[in-house]
Specification:
about 210 residues, two-stranded antiparallel sheet
C-alpha cells in the first residue's frame, strides 16, 4: 500500500510475463500468422510523474510512474544487496573473468526479479521445435519450459562497477543502489542518476504527504 493505492506484489510481473509467453506460444502454434491483440482499459486520471518507457510491453506501460519505478527499484536493490559480495572482483580473477561472472550474476537477478513492463524481456521456449496439436484444446496442452532473455548490454553496468574510482552514485549510495538504478536505466534508456533522482523525489514527496497528514 502506497499513498492509499495498493501496488501489485513483484511476483506478478514474472507471472504476467510467463502467461504472455504461454498465450503467444499457443496462438502462434494454433493460428500461424496471428497474434493476440490486448484490449486496453482507460486509466484513471491523475499525475503523470515518472519516466517514459521506450520499450513498453503494453501501451499502458508507455509511462512508468514514480510509484512503480520505486517499487521495481526496491525489489532489485534488495536482491542485489543480498548477493553484494558477488559484485566485487576477487583476488584470483582477471578483469575479464570478473566481468563475465558479475554480468552473469546481474542477469540472473534481472531474469528472476526484473520488471514486467518492458518488451526487452523475452520468454523463449526451451524446445523451439514444440508446436501445439490443433486437434487438441489449448488448455489441454502444456508447452515446454521457457527461459528469460533480456535484450540489453549489461556489460556497461559491469564496466562501471569495476572502474576506478567508479561512478559517483556508486561511491555515494553503494553498489546495490547503483546496479539497481543502472539496470532500470538500461531498460528506460536514461542515466542511472536520473532513475535514482526520480525514486528519491518520489520518496521525499511521499514523506511530505505523510507528515502533512499527521
Amino acid at each position: 500500500m502506497e499513498l492509499g493505492v495498493a501496488l501489485a506484489p513483484p511476483e506478478t510481473a514474472e507471472v504476467r510475463a510467463h502467461l504472455q509467453a504461454l498465450i503467444d506460444a499457443h496462438v502462434g502454434a494454433l493460428l500461424p500468422g496471428f497474434a493476440v491483440a490486448p484490449r486496453l482499459r482507460k486509466l484513471r486520471p491523475g499525475p503523470k510523474g515518472g519516466l517514459k518507457n521506450p520499450h513498453p510491453l503494453w501501451r499502458r506501460d508507455a509511462l512508468i510512474d514514480a510509484k512503480q519505478l520505486a517499487w521495481d527499484f526496491d525489489v532489485l536493490r534488495k536482491r542485489i544487496k543480498a548477493t553484494a559480495h558477488d559484485l566485487d572482483q576477487r583476488r584470483d580473477e582477471t578483469n575479464v573473468d570478473a566481468a563475465q561472472r558479475i554480468e552473469r550474476a546481474i542477469r540472473d537477478i534481472l531474469d528472476e526479479w526484473g520488471p514486467g513492463w518492458s518488451s526487452l524481456r523475452e520468454e523463449r521456449l526451451l524446445d523451439p521445435s514444440w508446436k501445439a496439436d490443433p486437434r487438441k484444446a489449448p488448455w489441454d496442452q502444456i508447452p515446454p519450459a521457457t527461459s528469460t532473455q533480456w535484450n540489453i548490454d549489461a556489460s556497461r553496468v559491469v564496466e562501471a562497477l569495476l572502474a576506478k574510482p567508479g561512478p559517483a552514485l556508486k561511491k555515494k549510495e553503494g553498489a546495490p543502489t547503483y546496479v539497481a538504478s543502472a539496470l532500470l536505466a538500461l531498460l528506460l534508456e536514461v542515466s542511472p542518476e536520473r532513475v535514482h533522482r526520480t525514486v528519491a523525489h518520489h520518496r521525499r514527496h511521499r514523506g511530505e504527504l505523510r507528515r502533512a497528514s499527521q
